[in-house]
Design brief:
Shape: globular
Structural class: alpha+beta
Distance between the termini: 49 Å
Helix content: 25-40%
Radius of gyration: 19 Å
Number of strands: 8
């Protein structure tokens, strides 16, 4: 059946000589992969390939069939045209990093309207900002709400946070309990929004240490999660 839906591009992979496999998170269907046949062999195809930059927001018409791993696209057009997300070097590094995280963590082949709305609005916010060096930190924390392991906000006044348990502790109970700068930053980020994010000031060392901690949090709760290959690039451009 033909379905029209908005979609966010998570990854693309060359297949054979002239085809592409594109993985998208869609508003109506959740995670869906598409096979674009012959798209690399013509100038007209190259124009279409440009639509599928990482985290691009599209409107698509797909011939969707249940129980298929790859689907076909009948129509595609930009839904939002970014002004800076793919042209600004620093933002491009964030895009590369977050697309890897999302490709690894989003597995549901079903509709999740609230998750799609979060992704859509967060990316549009980033596209318009001039100060965004901590965007990926807050994004990763907020994403855990939709993945099922958002930190338990009970006892936020306590002086340790246990990554394995996802909760605050009065005293450390295992090796995954931490305090110090990372704890302060976690509490600050849990109490902020993207619009007030610029009020939080941290240095390069703190940012990298906190990011490493959050990625460990993902690894502990998702099991198969691995640090994105683009992490080193992200740390370099924000150093």
């Amino acid at each position: 059946m033909l379905i029209t839906t908005n979609a966010i591009v998570l990854s693309k992979l060359r297949y054979k000589d002239n085809d592409l496999i594109v993985k998208c998170y869609t508003q109506q269907l959740g995670l869906v992969s598409f096979l674009l046949r012959g798209v690399l062999k013509s100038k007209k195809g190259n124009t279409k390939v440009a639509y599928f930059q990482l985290l691009s927001q599209l409107q698509i018409v797909t011939a969707y069939k249940n129980n298929r791993s790859l689907h076909s696209l009948k129509e595609v057009r930009p839904n939002h045209i970014y002004t800076s997300l793919h042209t600004n070097i620093l933002k491009s590094a964030i895009v590369m990093f977050l697309s890897e995280v999302l490709s690894s963590t989003l597995q549901e082949e079903e509709q999740n309207e609230s998750l799609y709305s979060f992704l859509e609005s967060a990316l549009l916010w980033l596209d318009t900002q001039f100060e965004y060096s901590n965007f990926h930190l807050l994004f990763l924390i907020k994403l855990t709400k939709y993945l099922g392991f958002y930190p338990d906000l009970t006892n936020m006044e306590w002086h340790h946070f246990n990554l394995q348990e996802g909760r605050f502790e009065l005293k450390p109970s295992n090796k995954y309990s931490f305090d110090g700068d990372n704890l302060i930053l976690l509490k600050n980020l849990l109490g902020t929004t993207f619009d007030t994010l610029n009020n939080i000031k941290i240095n390069v060392r703190q940012r990298q240490a906190f990011l490493a901690m959050i990625l460990k949090y993902y690894e502990l709760h998702l099991g198969s999660f691995k640090n994105p290959k683009s992490l080193q690039i992200l740390n370099q451009v924000f150093s």
